[in-house]
Amino acid sequence: MGTTQLESVPEPKYWHLRTVLSEALDSEFEVGEILPNERDLAARFGVARATLRQALEQLELEGRLQRRRGVGTTVAPPRVGVAVGTREHAWPGAADDAWQPADCHLAAPPAAVADALGTDRDAPVHTVRRSRVSHGQPVAAELLYVPPSSVPDLTAIDAPSGPARARAVLRELQRGDLERQESAVELGSAGADDAKELDRLPGAPVLVVTTRYLAEGRTAALSVATYRADTCRLTFGDSGDVEIHHGPQSRAS
Q1: Which terminus of the chain has fewer CB atoms gathered within 10 Å of its CB, N or C?
Q2: How many CB atoms lie within 10 A of CB 105?
Q3: CA torsion angle 99 128 196 82 (round to 10)
């Protein structure tokens, strides 16, 4: 068979540089270390600064680099593993939960959330806002919707809002018998609020993980978690925590 036009196209110069830079990140730099400036990097690799910028942008998109105003370009921490579809189920707020509660208020949820919870659209539910941090950087934001019927004894809690109220809702939720949880994942774009919380620009790619917690045959809570697509990866199955790093320091764990 003849060679197709696609096969005859040479590898772009920036893509080759991206491969060389990726290998350098594995062998020469540590997580959080600031890279040399663009002029020095371009001189080291013998390329134009425009080519260098393309390679850096690609590595940032892949989650290998982070570029922040006033700091420079740094080596990004490993992607955060997000377990999806495992057999082990637990209420949010369990002892090994990596999320940190930030706030809680009682308000009517979005219509789609009310429908999923089986509540009236104008009925208020507890909305717990939580965040997740890795290596000092925000990587995910979550809104957890809990109808009052799932936390019937919460009326005794004095805190009307804030982290204390959030922790109280999570503690009360633990009293129920969780039957199972179901998760769905989709690619989305960061809205203004999520972008600000995740230190990204509006429209940046994100992974949206929606999880239903079921008890007594109904949805007892609904989580909508937004993860930075450049710093997070999804794991599936009971032992999906596998990482493969390409380069001189290749390893699997």
Answers
A1: N
A2: 15
A3: 40
